[in-house]
Write a structure and sequence with these properties.
The structure holds two protein chains of two kinds. Chain A is mainly α. Chain A has helices spanning 2-5, 7-13, 25-55, 58-65, 68-101, 107-119, 122-133, 147-172, 175-183, 188-216, 236-245, 249-280; one strand at 21-22. Chain A has a single domain, classed as MetI-like fold (Orthogonal Bundle), CATH 1.10.3720. Chain B has two domains: 1-42, no CATH class; 48-270, MetI-like fold (Orthogonal Bundle). In chain B, α9 (144-154) runs antiparallel to α13, α11 (173-180) packs antiparallel against α12 and α14 runs antiparallel to α15. Chain B starts with a helix and ends in a 7-residue tail after the last helix. The chains are: A mainly alpha, B mainly alpha. Chains A and B meet through α1, α2, β1, α3 and α5 of A and α1, α2, α4, β1 and α5 of B.
Chain lengths: 281, 277
């Protein structure tokens, strides 16, 4: 799963492949077909979004984005995703630490639990959270149609990212350095802060970037959970969807461009972090 | 890695117990408990709810459609993913770094944006390519091909992410040896490359399948969500819940959750512990 969830995990192991060859005619043709499919599936549609937003002039797109209701949705989405990412940085690192450094019965089950949010359909995730934290909550906590519902949904769907980026890096660390620090009288906390933390910081950052991107783009788990109340619990994706349903594709494209910019920024950050981790490795 | 762990193991201190408790408590409250409640709600009156669901022809149609769309998307992504992984690892070409970064894009693009993007290009009225394709008898949006496209888009990186690290790990020596002994490119792929990446492909396929069966946002936009025609299982969950058929919604969600949990469990149990972590 490591590789499935987190690109950073993969990059840690990445070496410059020895002897990667020049393209042969056959592999060149393969690359051509692959690029054609990738363009038709991903590049062309995403360009269409940006061009559609620009079609009526950037002024109009800007007006759509700065509409009070849209701005409220963007603010809520970004702030909630930032807050959740902060929680994930702490909890994700902690979970990765316990999974790598501790041994106790039932750990395998925890590994499965961490990956469930990644594979569970988002609409089902919403229903799952509603069954414990909704109107019929058996423990009396009802976050439905409330801003905390957005935070809860984000926490659920972004759970795997920091854990799965940090875990492989932590497992690769040489414990002898830590033992040396401990034998020189460093406390466990000092050892963690001075020895472990610097080595896993790029992985934490990569996981945080993925978690932020996933939070900002979340839609499915919120449909049933947050009530999508304008100015209160409406997130950016829901705002885009209502524009599409009102047949206002240009407006939808303008807001979607904002989300795309965030996605691109995250991809850029990840690429830079990968380079950095490869250099260190 | 295994011996590192044993060397490093310490006696369980109060801190160890505290950390364990925090992690177990957090995962229990966030994932395990709510998930178990869905199972309980779905099986409230025995298997009656699930059985009633499977007798509703519209639901059966939705389930079948979900499986068909997911299988197409997985098949496409497997061929594309294995091919592009080999190209990325084994060959040099200009733009490789950009391509490698762009392949991760689907992971961070909102499903709603994916749906919108596909409608803008393949939509029957006003899309870039849609009208031409429809004039030639291929309807993409509001039909199965568009749903396959949307699903293939969101699950695109999963096979690649599993296969690339394994290809990098195994190196090229065996392939070069086979080449020097006169093996053709196809023979080398079938006899050497494919066996070494077999398990990575299996994991990638299982994860893609879980992701594809559960796609919701993108499919909601491109499918048109027509009952008995383009409505998929995840859309049934939403529809039933919003129409106050909670029992039906929980039963459908339970079926979907069962499949994805099974996928995750299979990958997690079969995957060897060392190497990937």
């Amino acid at each position: 799963m490591t590789a499935a969830v987190a690109s950073a995990g993969r990059s840690v192991l990445r070496r410059r492949p020895a002897g990667a060859g020049a393209l042969t005619p056959a592999s060149g043709a393969g690359l051509g077909v692959a690029m054609l499919w990738f363009s038709l599936l991903v590049l062309l549609p995403l360009s269409a979004v940006v061009l559609r937003a620009a079609e009526g002039g950037w002024g109009e797109a800007w007006a759509t984005i700065t509409n009070a209701q849209t701005l409220a949705a963007i603010r809520l989405t970004v702030l909630a995703a930032l807050g959740v990412t902060a929680v994930n940085v702490v909890m994700g690192t902690l979970i990765a630490w316990v999974l790598v450094r501790d041994r106790f019965p039932g750990q395998r089950l925890l590994e499965v639990l961490i990956d469930i949010p990644f594979a569970l359909p988002t609409i089902v995730a919403g229903l799952v959270l509603l069954s414990l934290y909704g109107t019929d909550s058996p423990i009396g906590i009802d976050v439905a149609n409330n801003r905390s519902a957005v935070v809860l949904a984000f926490l659920f769907v972004t759970l795997p990212f920091v854990v799965r980026t940090v875990q492989p890096v932590l497992a690769e660390l040489d414990p002898e350095v830590e033992e040396a620090a401990a034998s020189l009288g460093a406390s466990r906390f000092t050892t963690f802060r001075r020895i472990v933390l610097p080595s896993i910081t790029p992985a934490i950052a990569a996981g945080a970037a993925l978690s932020f991107a996933r939070g900002v783009s979340e839609y499915g788990s919120l449909v049933l959970l947050s009530g999508n109340l304008p100015f209160r619990t409406e997130v950016t994706s829901v705002r885009i969807l209502s524009s599409i349903e009102n047949d206002n594709l240009s407006g939808a494209a303008a807001i979607a461009t904002v989300l795309l910019l965030i996605s691109f920024a995250v991809i850029l950050v990840l690429d830079l972090l990968q380079r950095r981790m490869v250099r260190r490795g | 890695m295994a011996e590192h762990r044993t060397v490093h193991r310490r006696r369980a201190t109060p801190t160890t117990w505290l950390l364990r408790a925090i992690v177990v408590g957090y995962l229990f409250l966030l994932v395990a408990w709510p998930l178990s409640l869905v199972a309980r709600n779905a099986l409230d009156g025995g298997f009656g709810n699930v059985q009633a669901l499977l007798e509703d022809p519209d639901v059966v149609h939705a389930l079948r459609l979900t499986v068909v769309v997911a299988l197409w998307a997985v098949a496409i992504n497997t061929v594309f993913g294995v091919g592009i992984s080999i190209l990325l690892v084994r060959y040099r070409f200009p733009g490789k770094r950009v391509l490698s970064a762009l392949l991760d894009l689907p992971l961070s693009v909102s499903p709603v944006v994916v749906g919108l993007a596909i409608v803008l290009v393949y939509g029957g009225r006003g899309g870039w390519l849609g009208p031409t394709l429809e004039a030639n008898g291929l309807q993409v949006v509001y039909a199965t091909p568009g749903m396959v496209l949307a699903t293939a888009f969101v699950a695109l990186p999963l096979v690649i992410r599993e296969v690339v690290p394994v290809l990098e790990e195994v190196g090229m020596e065996q392939e070069l040896a086979a080449q020097s002994l006169g093996a053709s490119a196809w023979q080398r792929f079938r006899r050497i490359t494919l066996p070494s990446i077999r398990w990575a492909v299996v994991y990638g396929v299982v994860l893609s399948l879980a992701r594809s069966l559960g796609e919701f946002g993108a499919v909601k936009i491109v499918s048109g969500n027509v009952l008995g025609e383009t409505r998929t299982a995840t859309l049934v969950v939403e529809e039933k819940y919003l129409n106050f058929d909670k029992a039906g919604a929980y039963a459908t969600a339970f079926l979907l959750a069962l499949v994805s949990v099974a996928c995750i469990t299979v990958v997690s149990l079969v995957r060897p512990k060392e190497g990937t972590r």
